[in-house]
Design goal:
The structure is a single chain. This protein is mostly beta strands. Helices cover about 10% and strands about 45% of the residues. The strands form 8 sheets. Strands 10, 11, 12, 13 and 14 form a 5-stranded antiparallel sheet that branches. The chain has a 5-stranded antiparallel sheet with strand order 25-28-33-30-31, with no helix packed on it. Strand 10 and strand 11 form a beta hairpin. InterPro entries: Glyco_hydro_43, Glyco_hydro_beta-prop_sf.
Amino acid sequence: MKNKIYHRNFKVILFLLTIFLTGIKATFAQSYNIKNDSFWDTKNGKPIYSQGGGIFKFKDPKTGKLKYYWYGVHYKQAELYRKDPSVNYPRNNFQAVTCYSSTDLVNWEFEANVLTNEELGGRGWAWLGRMGVAYVKEKNEYVLIIQYGGRVLFANSDSPIGTFKKSHVKSMKDWIGTTNTGDQTVFTDEDTGKSYLVYSYGKGRNKIYLSEIGVKNDTITLLDYKQVFKGAGREGNCMFKYKGKYYIAASQLYGWDGSNAYYLVSDNIWGPYLPENDMQIFPGAADDYAHISQTGFFYTVRGSKKETVIFCGDRWSNFAGNGLGYNQWCPLSFDGEVPYFNSLNSWNLNEKTGEWSVADDNNYVKNASFEADRKSIPSSRKPVQTRILGWETMVVKGTKISLDSTSPVLNHANSQQERKIVIGERSLNMSDHVDFIRKVYQKISSSPYVELENGTYMLTAKVKHSDGFQNLEMYAKSGKKNYKFSIKKQTDWSTISIKDIKVTDNKIEIGFIADGKANAYCLVDDVSLVKMN
């Protein structure tokens, strides 16, 4: 009898211990914050410089355990812009390919400069960029593939943290007709272990190709090539895999600026990719050009509870002045095989479970610093448009907004001095050459995958205006309640705010109203709508 009681008690204790240990394990499966629109640091506070690269999972050379390795390029101009974001830089001086490692995809530590300018003979300002790393099992080596002037450079190492040594340089002319690739990235299929280079035609970039990476004549190189797209010019070519399907993604030809993000999908890595030769815009990306970024690379987190694809956009702000931060990472959602872009300023990721959530300090305003538009708006040049992205303009009185030369300009080119106070090259401009009444507004509501929670919010903005206004205000409207801030005597950039805004029915309208005399102007920048604690 005693043995039965003992055995029963032992099983109970064992059951409780299992629950306890499971609880402990769960506490270590933490969510960590990813903050866009900012410069990123390592976990010990050092600047992260990693542009145009990718994340890959390799074994740690010391422990043998799988770890995330993030490779990208460090440009001298990235340092300069971070120190003083009021200046753009016309060149791109390559310093090194950097390598950072992490176990949770959020907290990174610097490993090494794995390919240096010295290794390449100090090429000065010649272009090096758009790179990735693959492990090639046949050689038990890692290969780094990077655009190198007008060709493609291969560098090898026996360790994921380098140092990578130059192997050879490949001209693509015999394959695709140009010596160089257009933008390129490396994609590794974790199900097969095979890696591929995805790239575009070097001129016009109207064709996208795929090549497997492997060994030929005892050299790690590209084994073959196949055209998988022909159509409009595309750059920022990259790939990801989700639920067994392959996706090719790319951006528009907007140089250093953010643009729409496009995709194709296939059941097979070699295609066909559908809709054939007709890339589709990611739903959710059009209101702010994929959070003011270009397609850079993707990483698919296969967690214990959820599979999450992270869109890792490049923001080339050091060359374009289009905001703060170089890395804009946003989670994707899926409606069947259709990916949805969730444009978030701040969100949390649990790498162990694969779950993500919107952070409490997320700014829900799209194109909040008016940097998505890369020139004066309205614009008759690519992209042709008569509205500021993400915002609507209502002309109650005054000149109609059009492509005509008499139309008011909807955005303002910030001076260098202004950019020491406000973010980026552009701000909202409310002005006209005749007396005018204008409303500029944005309607914010829940998306299919991100809820705008009911609760208390604060609206802030930076404003600057001239004399000549009968009425000038910032407002918020939700449910049946209206909130407003009368803007007066902000002759230099000042921050204004409305607190305790009650959002109901999961939607709100925010905006600015200007009733001014001819040539009066009001500038607005850095708008924020954040939930109050």
